[in-house]
Amino acid sequence: MIRVEVRTHLREFTLTIAATFDRGVTVLAGPSGAGKTTLLRTIAGLTRPGEGIVQLDDAILDDRAHHVRPYHRNIAYVFQDYALFPHLDVLANVGYGLAARGIARAHRDAVARTWLERLGIDRLAHARPRALSGGERQRVALARALAWEPRALLLDEPFSALDPATRAAVRRTVRETLGALDVPVVLVTHDEADIVEFGARVLRIERGLLSPETRAAPSTS
Ligand SMILES: Nc1ncnc2c1ncn2[C@@H]1O[C@H](COP(=O)(O)OP(=O)(O)OP(=O)(O)O)[C@@H](O)[C@H]1O
């Protein structure tokens, strides 16, 4: 569970959030400039809140006395542009977080391959990111985030870089993958189709303020 109770002054308004994100997917929806990315960055530890508290399960990540650095939060963040390492092949990209933890090559390659297989892109293991389509890059970014076994997953507009035809197929794959996870997932979007696909729990944000909107879980058939 992620708990966020923060107030942070931004250029035109104050981001004022009191929310908890339980296991499973919560969609964070709102127009451009509403504060969605700033909230994700606050959870990830990339932006420090002006005041308040950020907590993951029993651990305080941010408050007046604490600031746990992003790397030590064990929270995976998939950026809008995916931010893959261009000089590494797909396998090395996906294994990167494990390498940083000192896990031996054979083991991290095996874990990375498992995720590539789950996401249907194992044939791309030795390709470089520049040789991939947008949908393939998106899946590599997700595989990289999940191979790390994060305690929470943050997705910022995960499908916005894809063309509409690819978007629907990748969205379905990602929904199936996320459905099997046992950690909180926060998915930021301003695309109503994402809300239909993932929107069992939706929080709307506008000018830094949340308004809850509860939807019935969509049919998975
Ligand atoms: N470090 C900062 N200091 C002051 N203001 C900021 C800072 N970062 C972002 N802002 C402002 O906060 C507001 C919210 O930005 P944010 O990127 O969180 O919105 P968003 O909902 O993610 O938008 P988009 O959908 O366009 O990505 C914007 O007006 C932005 O200019």
TrEMBL record:
Species of the source: Vulcanimicrobium alpinum
Keywords: ATP-binding, Nucleotide-binding, Transport
Signal peptide: none
Gene3D superfamilies: P-loop containing nucleotide triphosphate hydrolases
Entry protein name: ABC transporter ATP-binding protein
Single GO MF descriptor: ATP binding
Keyword Nucleotide-binding among record annotations: yes
InterPro entries linked to this entry: AAA+_ATPase, ABC_SmlMolc_Importer, ABC_transporter-like_ATP-bd, ABC_transporter-like_CS, P-loop_NTPase
Any matching Pfam family: ABC_tran
Boundaries of every ABC transporter domain copy: 1-220
SUPFAM superfamilies: P-loop containing nucleoside triphosphate hydrolases
